[in-house]
Amino acid sequence: MAKIVGIMTTSHVPALGKAIAKNLQSDPYWKPFFDGFPPIHEWLEKVKPDVVVSCYNDHGLNFFLDKLPTFAIGTAPEYVSEDEGWGIPPQPSFPGAEDLSWHLRDNLVRDEFDVVSCQEMLVDHSFTLPMALLWPHQKWPVKSIPVAINTTLFPMPSPRRCFKLGEAIGRAIASYPEDLKVLVIGSGGLSHQLEGQRAGHINKPFDERFMDSMLNDPQWATQFSDVDLVEQVGNEGVELVNWLAARATVPGRVKLVHASYHIPISNTAAATMLMEPI
What we know:
alpha/beta, eight-stranded mixed β-sheet, Xdiol_dOase_suB, Protocatechuate 3,4-dioxygenase
């Protein structure tokens, strides 16, 4: 049976892509964030996952306000990145895990999640940057399944609903008959707001409580509504529901392999966690 071997959560600040392209990982501004990844690279080399399921949020590359699903899943043979205007070079295409993605899609629909199936799908920095952070050579040794969550247009799915989505994804993975090692990614956050009167808003106490909850109380953030979450972590900080969905794929306890938290990276509380099921 397929098995989740790890959960990796990380910020996806677009400027990170530009820093990677310019080889600025050792620059004093960027180094504290990039220094969080060598332990994760060592873990990847040891565990060697076969498939990545990435919970992320699209920023207008694949969906826009005129057509924005609450949840969407990629069922394509490959996923392509394009120029987003951030100075991030397009990355090599990502091979899809078609059989597993259709299995996930079917099981999610039967679990009463009305997901949009995407047999063609562009992926933006929310999907591509975690992959580049995990595999800096950008030669992907895994197949991928993108799961897009709306964090842009109100009403957004509540943290509780996103947690339930993650639980359903976890059940679907566990029921897949092929022996595959699956890494689940939650992409985004943590607290930040990029516009308006609260531009630059960072809530470090909330971020630290949320990161602790990933280990010790994974449903803690489900007490908040989408509006409550904006108040706590900012308009863009609501991306942490991607972390919540990823964490929910493992029903039991997890062990922390590595974590880092750095303020700020481009007005964002930039954080990373790697967890293993116990």
